[in-house]
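Service request form, structural biology core

Requester: graduate student, group of Dr. S.
Request type: structure prediction, single chain
Budget code: on file
Notes: please return the result as structure tokens.

Sequence provided:
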Amino acid sequence: MMTSPQAGPETAAKAPGAAPAHAHTKTASSTKRQEAASPQKAGGKENKTKQYGRNVCCLLETVRIYQGCICSLVRHNRRLNDTRAHFWPESTPLQLSYYLSSPGCGAGITGAGIVKARVVYGEKGIEDLSYSPYAVRHVHSLALIQADHIDYTYKSAGREPLNCLFALRGACDDILIVKQGLLTDTSIANIALSDGTHWYTPAHPLLKGTKRAALLEEGILQEKDIRPEDLPSFSTVRLFNAMIDWGELELPVRNIIP
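Core staff response, request fulfilled:
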């Protein structure tokens, strides 16, 4: 049975992300888990930046560059400008293509397969841009973690609450976060579940990813409220995000550990 964790102080954790392809399978355990996130209360437009604290100054887009081609540029650009308009209504729209298509894009590594472009932005515009080779971190098991108050509506570099939850995974490779009784995301990706006929993705994810939006628009995914007790109705879970392509990472539902 999944236990409802208690709120606790944030602790240092190794941030989840890309890892070498030789990452090995881990066995699930019944380690006691605690919730790392604390409630955040919005107080109107004037409190938007206050609500997110310093994280609003470190907003983030992660863009996949494959063999020199920039993937989903329009969707990333739209989300970046929508986020800036939310926090700073008077901000001028930006064009990511101007930055990502500049000479030297990828620092000479764009021909090396998959490259991650990490774009940090804020009120004044693009604040940092870096590139690194990317390899998918293999995930063979997921630990169900309850976190009713976590909020990651806006993608940012401030991942402390997610990192703290990730640290509670026990022997599993990653976590699957349950918020208000509904499945949401892993620490790094949106998910979809197959019943053998259709693919369903949680209707209320922590972050509405660009890949998720594309798959919904293409009719590959359907939104649905999915509870932990619904898991036996599905056979397979897929993880995906801007860097992990559809079908690249999946595991049997039986490897989701309460």
